[in-house]
């Protein structure tokens, strides 16, 4: 399975994928694409010998033009799966449809709770006792596609958003490679009413 990983920043999830699959045949990170030239994740990719591409969103007048350039950069590498790993751009419907059933995202909350930004602070403000992270297929609804896998973390007394984010990240690095592994082995598929793991509706 050839995958493209899309990033905008640090790329710790990218690193988890690199570490998990570098000695495996069934998943190959074909390209890492960033909309930011200074994303540290690009450095992680280079160190691992993975081709990188920067598509700066600021160079494009419209979202459609940016997404078309992004699509061209990805499709050139003939990938089976697009993995969003801290990619901080909202994608157009045309882009999402192009990769329908072939694009995963990781979102730092227990979806459907806290779609969008500042999830850790919002969980704290709400007084939640449990927080977490979700891997889901990407559909046109922002952070709304069928969930594949979730992990929970406890919210501790006197927790801060940063401390909570760090605890969530540990879980992210465990579940994202797992979901990609399932997809690569043909165990995971998106359907109209959700998604399936080895035939079982999740
Ligand atoms: C993660 O918290 C992920 O859930 C969210 O963006 C962040 C990316 O972190 N979508 P990193 O760049 O992988 O370290």
TrEMBL record:
KW Transferase (keyword) present: yes
Pathway(s) served: Purine metabolism; IMP biosynthesis via de novo pathway; N(2)-formyl-N(1)-(5-phospho-D-ribosyl)glycinamide from N(1)-(5-phospho-D-ribosyl)glycinamide (10-formyl THF route): step 1/1
Sites where the protein binds (6R)-10-formyltetrahydrofolate: 63, 88-91, 105
Catalytic site positions: 107 (proton donor)
Boundaries of every Formyl transferase N-terminal domain copy: 2-180
Reactions mediated catalytically: N(1)-(5-phospho-beta-D-ribosyl)glycinamide + (6R)-10-formyltetrahydrofolate = N(2)-formyl-N(1)-(5-phospho-beta-D-ribosyl)glycinamide + (6S)-5,6,7,8-tetrahydrofolate + H(+)
EC number(s) on file: 2.1.2.2
Keyword Lipoprotein: no
CDD domains for this protein: FMT_core_GART
Site (Raises pKa of active site His) location in chain: 143
Superkingdom of the organism of origin: Bacteria
HAMAP family for this protein: PurN (MF_01930)
Function of the protein: Catalyzes the transfer of a formyl group from 10-formyltetrahydrofolate to 5-phospho-ribosyl-glycinamide (GAR), producing 5-phospho-ribosyl-N-formylglycinamide (FGAR) and tetrahydrofolate.
Protein family membership: Belongs to the GART family.
NCBIfam families for the chain: PurN
Record's protein name: Phosphoribosylglycinamide formyltransferase
Organism: Biformimicrobium ophioploci
């Amino acid at each position: 399975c050839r995958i493209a990983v899309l990033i905008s920043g640090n790329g710790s999830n990218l690193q988890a994928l690199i570490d998990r699959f570098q000695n495996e045949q069934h998943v190959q990170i074909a390209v890492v694409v960033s909309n930011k030239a200074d994303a540290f994740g690009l450095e992680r990719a280079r160190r691992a010998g993975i081709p990188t591409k920067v598509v700066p969103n600021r160079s494009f007048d419209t979202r459609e033009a940016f997404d078309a350039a992004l699509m061209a950069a990805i499709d050139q590498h003939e990938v089976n799966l697009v993995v969003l790993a801290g990619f901080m751009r909202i994608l157009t419907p045309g882009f999402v449809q192009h990769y329908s059933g072939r694009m995963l995202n990781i979102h730092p909350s227990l979806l459907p709770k806290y779609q969008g930004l500042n999830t850790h602070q919002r969980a704290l403000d709400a007084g939640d006792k449990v927080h977490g992270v979700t891997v889901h297929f990407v559909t046109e609804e922002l952070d709304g596609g069928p969930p594949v896998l979730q992990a929970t973390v406890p919210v501790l007394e006197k927790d801060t958003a940063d401390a909570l984010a760090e605890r969530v990240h540990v879980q992210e690095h465990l579940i994202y490679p797992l979901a990609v592994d399932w997809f690569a082995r043909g165990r995971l598929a998106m359907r109209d009413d959700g998604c399936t793991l080895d035939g079982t509706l999740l």
